[in-house]
């Protein structure tokens, strides 16, 4: 007779087989919608006509609704509310529109109907947007040259977690929360790297994902995208699990590159600037939907 531990081990082995099948048959992983690719191509064109971009965006009514909602949020509210998608593009800027398009596409790609998978998706999404809001805040506060890049890198670094979930879409036996996070720890980075390459995204995002969470990885020069993402990830983990097994913040090469005026650490092992702006960061997280 098998013990509970033996049954759990057997179940996990079955779950691992499911993930390995996806790793060896990458066609099972989703591709970005063609409309997303068209919009992102247009956004990348510095000479794009806002009317032409608005026409593309209006082909996806749900994306339109999300952009209008963000434009009306406290983060962007103006005396004269945006009345059209053209107004929204002008208000948010192309970089923010690109972020929202990718966020919407990722969320749509991994929509899951099973109650257990939906529960795990909600948990994963909350972690994802917290990480993205931390990185976005840090990039803006520290004067990083392209804050939107930090947002995008944080979002894309979690697509492997969602891919783990989607692997069980058509499988009868769904993992529980504990097994799911164990699977993520083992497989999400590999799946994420495959997806980023499949989606033909910039190499800097691939490099961030490849090295994210390597707390003591040497880091020379000025504050980099990976530095911001690692500091953002560190604080996200601290918020979600105050007892997490993390090295002291002061040991991180990314921390050591901060200006001394930004290096003050609170008793909870978080940067004081993060603690003081917690409300702003949480408001930003809610804007991700």
Radius of gyration: 20 Å
Count of beta strands:
0
The class by helix and strand makeup works out as mainly alpha
How would a textbook summarize the main sheet?
none
* Topology as a string of helices (H) and strands (E): HHHHHHHHHHHHHHH
Number of helices: 15
Number of individual domains: 2
Uncertain segments are none
Helix content: 55-70%
CATH architecture of the largest domain: Orthogonal Bundle
Ends: how far apart? 47 Å
Q: Identify the overall geometry.
A: globular
Looking at the structure, the CATH topology of the largest domain is Hypothetical protein af1432
CATH homologous superfamily classification of the largest domain: Hypothetical protein af1432
Q: How confident overall, as mean pLDDT?
A: 90
The level-1 CATH class of the largest domain: Mainly Alpha
Strand content is: under 5%
Name a few traits of the molecule.
64% helix; globular; 2 domains; 289 residues; Hypothetical protein af1432
Description:
The chain has helices at 4-24, 34-44, 50-57, 61-71, 85-92, 94-109, 115-141, 147-156, 159-166, 177-198, 203-211, 225-240, 253-256, 272-276, 278-287. The protein is globular and about 60 Å long. The model has no long low-confidence stretch (mean pLDDT 90). The protein folds into two domains: 31-109, no CATH class; 112-287, Hypothetical protein af1432, CATH 1.10.3210.10. The longest helix has 27 residues, at 115-141. Helix 7 (115-141) runs antiparallel to helix 8 and helix 7 (115-141) packs across helix 12 (225-240). With 289 residues, it is mainly alpha-helical.
């Amino acid at each position: 007779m098998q013990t509970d531990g033996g049954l759990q081990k057997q179940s996990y082995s079955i779950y691992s087989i499911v993930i390995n099948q996806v790793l060896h048959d990458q066609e099972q992983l989703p591709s970005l919608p063609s409309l997303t690719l068209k919009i992102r191509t247009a956004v990348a064109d510095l000479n794009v006509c806002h009317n032409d971009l608005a026409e593309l965006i209006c082909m996806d009514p749900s994306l339109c609704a999300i952009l209008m909602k963000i434009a009306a949020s406290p983060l962007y509210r103006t005396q004269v509310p945006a009345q059209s998608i053209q107004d929204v593009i002008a208000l948010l800027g192309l970089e923010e529109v690109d972020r929202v398009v990718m966020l919407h596409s990722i969320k749509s790609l991994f929509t899951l109907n099973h109650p257990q998978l939906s529960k795990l998706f909600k948990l994963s999404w909350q972690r994802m947007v917290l990480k993205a809001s931390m990185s976005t805040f840090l990039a803006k506060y520290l004067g990083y040259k392209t804050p939107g890049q930090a947002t995008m890198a944080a979002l894309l670094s979690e697509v492997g977690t969602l891919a783990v979930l989607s692997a069980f879409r058509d499988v009868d036996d769904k993992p529980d929360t504990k097994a799911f996070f164990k699977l993520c720890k083992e497989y999400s980075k590999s799946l994420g790297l495959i997806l980023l390459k499949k989606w033909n995204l910039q190499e800097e995002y691939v490099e961030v994902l490849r090295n994210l969470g390597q707390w003591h990885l040497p880091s020379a020069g000025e504050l980099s995208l990976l530095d911001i993402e690692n500091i953002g990830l560190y604080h996200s983990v601290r918020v979600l699990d105050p007892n997490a097994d993390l090295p002291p913040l002061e040991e991180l090469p990314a921390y050591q590159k901060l200006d001394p005026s930004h290096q003050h650490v609170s008793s909870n092992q978080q940067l004081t600037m993060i603690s003081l702006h917690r409300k702003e960061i949480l408001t930003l997280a809610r804007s991700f939907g």
